[in-house]
């Protein structure tokens, strides 16, 4: 399992976004998240390990240093991506960090997009929604239309997590967001888990029709996972899941 040691990392070649500079707003020592996804490349949260959450000013100083250096090297970024060791919108000054990032992007890499990979659990906060409305790629996760499946795959730490509540919060963006879904199958603690069944795909497709996002990203496992009994879904099956919605005009990227 891998955690990110610095505030900025990369650039790396993203399957979905191109040449991406990553930003980690969480501690380097441990993942901090409202999910404990069974497929997370950062592994499970280490109990009792807190770590230092970088301040807004620390993030700005490090990001300016990195962007300036890349610009001097003649490297042109496609995207600046908030991901890292957990849920970026948990940062106490997330909105301010986004403001600084827009300023620095415009100064050093004006053509780069700003992306946020989020599990959509903090959309009840007005400041988070305002910030996400300002980025180019507001990428929000829903791995199933069923609460029971989300609890198996994503293991939300919020006791009152509900897909219906998340959907209501997603509607605040009036379709101006990217929906992201991980498809997988396998088992956890001998319990089957599979969000590619006919029932799952039908309910998920109806959810997409209801939310009408500007784009949908579907993908499967590509890195080591903390649960070893999971199986990758093929690109062919992802395309089969996407096909009916594509015929209806939805923009669906499968990788």
Indicate the radius of gyration in whole angstroms: 18 Å
Please mark out the parts with pLDDT under 50 across 5 or more consecutive residues, or reply none: none
Largest sheet: 8 strands, mixed
Q: Tally of extended strands? A: 11
Overall mean pLDDT: 95
Helix content: 25-40%
Q: How far is it from the N-terminal to the C-terminal residue, by CA?
A: 22 Å
Structure description:
There is one protein chain. By secondary structure, this protein is of the alpha/beta class. It is built from seven helices and eleven strands. The strands form two sheets. The protein has an eight-stranded mixed sheet with strand order 1-2-3-4-5-6-9-11. Strands 8-7-10 form a three-stranded antiparallel sheet, with helices on one face. Strand 1 and strand 2 (18-23) form a beta hairpin. The longest helix has 17 residues, at 56-72. It is globular. The mean pLDDT is 95.
How would you sum up this structure in a few lines?
With 255 residues, this protein is an alpha/beta fold. Helix content is 32%, strand content 21%.
Keywords for this structure?
255 residues; alpha/beta; eight-stranded mixed beta sheet; globular
SSE inventory with pairings:
Blueprint: E1 8-14, E2 18-23, H1 56-72, E3 79-82, H2 94-108, E4 113-118, H3 126-132, E5 137-141, H4 147-153, H5 163-170, E6 178-182, E7 184-188, E8 191-194, H6 198-211, E9 215-219, E10 230-232, H7 235-247, E11 252-254
Parallel strand pairs: 2-3, 3-4, 4-5, 5-6, 6-9, 9-11
Antiparallel strand pairs: 1-2, 7-8, 7-10
């Amino acid at each position: 399992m891998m955690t990110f040691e610095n505030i900025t990392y990369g650039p790396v070649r993203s399957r979905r976004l191109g040449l991406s500079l990553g930003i980690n707003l969480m501690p380097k020592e441990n993942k901090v998240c409202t999910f404990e996804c069974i497929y997370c490349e950062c592994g499970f949260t280490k109990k009792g390990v807190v770590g230092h959450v970088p301040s807004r000013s620390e993030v700005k100083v490090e990001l300016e240093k990195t962007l300036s250096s890349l610009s001097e090297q003649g490297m042109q970024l496609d995207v600046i991506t908030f991901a890292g060791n957990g849920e970026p919108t948990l940062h106490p000054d997330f909105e301010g960090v986004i403001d600084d990032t827009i300023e620095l992007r415009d100064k050093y890499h004006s053509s780069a997009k700003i992306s946020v990979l989020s599990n959509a659990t903090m959309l009840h906060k007005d400041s988070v929604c305002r910030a996400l409305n300002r980025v180019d790629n507001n990428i929000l996760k829903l791995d199933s239309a069923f609460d029971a499946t989300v609890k198996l795959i994503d293991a939300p730490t919020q006791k009152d997590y509900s897909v219906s509540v998340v959907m209501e919060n997603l509607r605040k963006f009036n379709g101006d967001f990217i929906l992201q879904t991980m498809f997988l199958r396998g088992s956890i603690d001998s319990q089957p888990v599979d969000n590619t069944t006919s029932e799952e795909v039908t309910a998920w497709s109806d959810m997409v029709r209801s939310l009408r996002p500007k784009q949908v990203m579907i993908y499967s496992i590509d890195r080591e996972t903390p649960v070893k009994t999971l199986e990758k879904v093929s690109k062919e099956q992802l395309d089969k899941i996407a096909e009916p919605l594509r015929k209806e005009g939805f923009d669906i990227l499968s990788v």
